[in-house]
Automatic annotation (TrEMBL):
Residues 3-147 form the Tyrosine-protein phosphatase domain. PANTHER family: DUAL SPECIFICITY PROTEIN PHOSPHATASE 12, DUAL SPECIFICITY PROTEIN PHOSPHATASE 12 FAMILY MEMBER. CDD domains: DSP_fungal_YVH1 (cd14518). GO terms for molecular function: protein tyrosine phosphatase activity; protein tyrosine/serine/threonine phosphatase activity. It comes from Lophiotrema nucula. This is protein-tyrosine-phosphatase. Its EC number is 3.1.3.48. The active site is at C91. It comes from the Eukaryota. The lineage of its organism: Eukaryota, Fungi, Dikarya, Ascomycota, Pezizomycotina. Residues 309-328 are annotated as: Disordered. SMART domains: DSPc (SM00195). Residues 67-125 form the Tyrosine specific protein phosphatases domain. It is an enzyme of class 3 (hydrolase).
Length: 328
């Protein structure tokens, strides 16, 4: 490893630390025409007089939002390469912030994963290691299919909302009303398998795509276990879900916790706690927004009959001969 390292391959793309800028001969030899600085500093105009320069002012901390800058940094790098020049991406040490931006570019350029891109640049610069927060942002960027416009992507908007909730939680407060994201007001590509209805008035309250899995289980596995070997205390007594628009009047009051009422019959159907809630299966869900299974019917989409719940291990009764004849 040196002060400036070339990313493997045919691209004239380089990565380094801030002291690289003092190596004028090395920069000229590499044919550097564009410099991307990914750190907070006051640049010396003389250092960049011969380069096209772009600065992204971010700190090397896990909660810094570098994801929002990927489209701009990718475009800057591509413009430099398309112009026939060389591009240097640097931060303080050439380890985390600069590596993150180079990885984001390689992900979009070659349609590869964040881990594959990291392994690729480590061939040239072994110290490259984005902090954990930046790696999660890169993974999300890959899940979003490296879009040209990040901020209009639902996955990014949801991520921003989750950051706001976490910040509020750290301050011991409920999130500001205008920052609460009601998922049913946004487009979702997930199909709904079933809906949840108020048991008293039959008013639909949620569909399956708004349920939240907790632990390492899927929503159905985590919340609908009927395994006879599982003790009752380990099964989930609630459906955990995203904020939905019918909850608006309650969630926008600024309270840390409270109860949820059916908007039609005003029956208490659940509760919420922005600080988190422990499920009966012992998992913590943050934030905790839940509907009580004892007050909800689960209805498969396309049917009008609620699913009947039976005790663990209970067998489904066989139809009598007379019932069988009537159905023929």
């Amino acid at each position: 490893m040196s002060l400036i390292d070339k990313v493997p391959g045919d691209l004239r793309l380089y990565i380094g630390g801030i002291f690289t800028l003092r190596r004028r001969e090395a920069l000229q030899k590499a044919g550097i025409t564009h410099v991307l600085s990914v750190l907070r500093f006051q640049p010396d105009p003389q250092l960049f007089s011969t380069f096209k320069h772009m600065v992204i002012e971010v700190d090397d901390v896990e909660d810094e939002n570098l994801l929002e800058h990927f489209p701009a940094t990718n475009q800057f790098i591509q413009e430099g390469l398309d112009g026939g020049g060389g591009v240097l991406v640097h931060c303080a040490m050439g380890k985390s912030r600069s590596a993150t931006c180079v990885i984001a570019y390689l992900m979009q350029k070659h349609s590869i994963s964040a881990s594959a891109a990291l392994s690729y640049i480590r061939q040239a610069r072994s110290i490259c290691e984005p902090n954990e927060g930046f790696m999660k942002q890169l993974e999300l960027y890959g899940q979003m299919h490296t879009p040209e416009n990040v901020e209009d992507t639902p996955a990014y908007q949801r991520w921003i909302y989750q950051r706001e909730v976490e910040l509020s939680r750290a301050c011991g407060q409920a999130p500001e009303a205008e920052k609460i994201r009601f998922e049913d007001l946004h487009v979702t590509e997930k199909p709904a398998d079933y809906e949840l209805r108020c048991r008293k008035c039959r008013r639909p309250l949620a569909t399956s795509q708004y349920l939240i899995a907790h632990g390492s289980k899927s929503p159905d596995d985590a919340q609908n276990s009927i395994d006879p070997t599982v003790r009752p205390s380990q099964t989930c007594a609630h459906y955990f879900l995203d904020p939905l628009s019918w909850m608006r009047s309650e969630l926008e009051q600024g309270k840390l916790d409270g109860r949820l009422e059916c908007p039609k019959c005003h029956t208490n159907v659940g509760k919420y706690a922005w600080q988190g809630m422990q499920c009966s299966c012992s998992e913590w869900v943050v934030p905790g927004i839940s509907l009580s299974k004892g007050r909800i019917d689960k209805v498969r989409m396309g049917t009008s009959v609620a699913e009947i719940r039976r005790p663990p291990g209970a067998a489904i009764p066989s139809p009598s001969p007379s019932q069988t004849r009537q159905n023929l």
